[in-house]
Amino acid sequence: MEITRKFKNTFSCIPMLGWLAGTFVAVLIEYYWGYDYISYYLGLPKIPVLFGTLIMLKDPLMIPGAIGYDLIVYVIPVLLIAKLSSSFTNPLAAAFEKTPLWVSAIFHLILFYGILHLWAGINDYRVLVVKLTLISIILTISINVINGYQGEFSCSHPGFMAIGAYVSSIITLYFFVNDKTFGTAVLPPALGHWLFPFALLAGGIAAAIGSLLVAIPSFKTRGDYLAIISLAFMFIVKSAVENLDFIGGARGMGGQPDYAPLPVIFIWTMLCIWIVHNFVSSIMGKALNAVRDDEAASESMTVKTRKTKMTAFMFGAFWAGIAGGLFAHVIAYINPGMFSINRLAEILAMVYFGGLNSIVGSIVGAVSINVLGEALRPLELFKWIIIPLILIFVMIFRPYGLISFKEINAKKLLRSKFKKEQGV
Questions:
Q1: Cα-atom radius of gyration of the chain, to the nearest Å?
Q2: What is the pLDDT of residue 422?
Q3: What whole-number distance in Å separates Cα of residue 81 and Cα of residue 177?
Q4: How many CB atoms lie within 10 A of CB 200?
Q5: pTM exceeds 0.90
Q6: Would you say residue 424 has pLDDT above 80?
Q7: Which domains, and CATH codes, for the chain?
Q8: Are the C-beta atoms of 20 and 414 separated by less than 8 Å?
Q9: What is the per-residue pLDDT across 30-57, written as a single tens digit (0 to 9) for each?
Q10: How far is CA 354 from the centre of its chain?
Q11: Could you tell me which residues come within 8 angstroms of residue 201 by beta carbon, excluding any fewer than 6 positions away?
Q12: CB hemisphere CA count around 148 (13 angstroms)
């Protein structure tokens, strides 16, 4: 306990800028010396992709080398640089406190993205994992609006994701790609990157409109009807897509152009976090919480409960459609099987693992489940035993998830720790 207290006191005076500086140095070390020197002299065949878990699970003899690699590349540089730079980063953080909060937030996000881009750029596998994780964050936050803040239980998110994926794919393939299905491109392909956001928005809007097929009949009733109707909606969308030959049917649709590089997905993810945070913090969000806690009391206090629930439901569906469009253009291929019950289980696992009624919890859940799933990939079948067991233990000891009912406090997160260091 004494060691823990000393460790906490030593590093509690470091602002977010200090931790970002330490992480940046660690990534630079890996980028320039990870393969040629560190991994080579530790007897590792290559740079560990996910902090050595893949190597350790494939070959247990590599466990000491992988742990040593993490210590040399990540743990020691991050702690050392973060501590040594606190005398510089604290005054800098204090200077940012005098500027508008959005200035400080954008500066931190740019620095964070630079670190993420450099870390992912070491190999293509990391890039793919980061892209899919960012898309999962959008999905998890969007379903948390419905299952967390609204207090309902929706199973229709894979259907919304499928609508967004297919609508955005049809637009980009028809207008910007010489495709066998749709023929010669209508517009010059060079315009595709610039008009891609409109294709994503179209997919999101289509998903929001499609959500009315669930919302209108569901919100006339109470209880578990939403779960039943939304589950039926997911299967209806999947079956409909399978029987539409002009979009590939059960074979799927491929050839989507690469309009979703890492910077684009990162920007959409940050927009989602910011907009959803503003939504749940607004009057509409407060009304949504009131409806969740006591619908009858909310109605007696002049809250339009049905309108509130339908607005939130369409809002969550819109972002699921955006995530589907990004997913389609990352994988460059979609088929109805990608939006089935397995996808629903994955989305629900992320949101309930991270925590309900919390954007931070959604981020933690999406990152944890994605990284854990990739890290346990060498175990093959056992992976689907370990992850459910972890979820079961979380549900037993933390029924609302790891981080629930907590919102982002950017001002507290980004502030200087100088006063705390001085004991003020």
A1: 23
A2: 45
A3: 48
A4: 26
A5: yes
A6: no
A7: 2-100 (no CATH), 124-411 (1.10.3470)
A8: no
A9: 999 988 888 888 888 888 888 888 888 8
A10: 11
A11: 322
A12: 32
- Residue found under tokens 């030593």: 10
Tell me which residue has tokens 């996910």. Answer: 50
What pairs with residue 183 in β-bridges?
179
How far apart are the C-alpha atoms of 158 and 140, rounded to whole Å?
12
Rounded Cα distance, 82 and 86, in Å: 6
Q: Which helix (H) or strand (E) holds 306?
A: helix 305-331
Residue 54: left if φ>0, alpha if ψ -120 to 50, beta else—which one? alpha
Among candidate residues 303, 355, 340, the one with its CA nearest the CA of residue 143: 355
Q: How many CB atoms lie within 10 A of CB 17?
A: 24
Taking the alpha carbons at both ends of the chain, their separation in whole angstroms is 25
* Best CA proximity match to 387, nearest among 368, 402, 400: 368
Q: Do the beta carbons of residue 44 and residue 83 sit within 8 Å?
A: no
DSSP string, 217-238: HHTTS-SSHHHHHHHHHHHHHH
**DSSP readout, 17-85?**
HHHHHHHHHHHHHHHHHIIIIIHHHTT-SS--TTTTHHHHHH-GGGHHHHHHHHIIIIIHHHHHHHHHT
- By the 10 Å C-beta count (0-12 exposed, 13-18 middle, 19+ buried), 340 is classed as middle
Asked if pLDDT for residue 147 goes beyond 70, the answer is yes
Residue 50, Cβ density class (10 Å: 0-12 exposed, 13-18 middle, ≥19 buried) = middle
In this structure, are residues 142 and 325 in contact, taking their beta carbons and an 8 Å threshold?
A: no
Tokens of 1: 């306990």
> What is the rounded CA–CA span in Å between residue 67 and residue 9?
26
Task: Dump pLDDT digits (tens) for 327-369.
Answer: 999 999 999 999 988 899 889 989 988 888 889 999 999 999 9
